[in-house]
Write a structure and sequence with these properties.
Layout (H helix, E strand, L loop, with lengths): L1 H24 L2 H8 L7 H26 L4 H26 L4 H23 L7
Keywords: Membrane, Transmembrane, Transmembrane helix
Protein name: DUF4345 domain-containing protein
Pfam families: DUF4345 (PF14248)
């Protein structure tokens, strides 16, 4: 049971981020105009979103490794914390500079903060059980 609770933030993060990665990168010409208010009309923009998909997928791979290989749990959790808090920080800057975003982006901020703080909490809570 300890292991399941310990890994839950990584699993939830992995599920959410893989969905986002695939939405951004598999079919950017189709998905992004639906999700956002712009069209992807250049090779460079397609390339940027597919690179983002690759980055997100790589992070998810590390988080999943942390779930199944306890020796990677700390690295996976640290990367998850930096990833989520980094995204949240960017959204907070945008909130202050650009104004209040849509409900979906505000929900993203709340989730990123929650997952990042949960990861910090788990790092402290499971400090002595990192290899369980």
């Amino acid at each position: 049971m300890l292991t399941k609770k310990k890994n839950l933030h990584l699993l939830i993060s992995a599920i959410i981020i893989i969905v986002v990665a695939l939405a951004y990168g598999l079919f950017p010409n189709t998905m992004l105009p639906i999700l956002f208010d712009f069209k992807v009309e250049s090779v460079d923009l397609n390339n940027a979103f597919r690179a983002t998909m690759g980055l997100y997928t790589g992070m998810v791979a590390l988080w999943v490794m942390g779930v199944f290989k306890p020796c990677y749990w700390r690295a996976a959790t640290l990367s998850n914390v930096f990833f989520m808090i980094g995204l949240a920080s960017g959204r907070i800057i945008s909130l202050l500079v650009d104004g209040v975003p849509s409900t979906s982006f505000s929900a993203g901020l709340a989730l990123e903060l929650a997952l990042g703080l949960w990861g910090i909490s788990n790092l402290n809570k499971y400090r002595s059980t990192a290899d369980q």
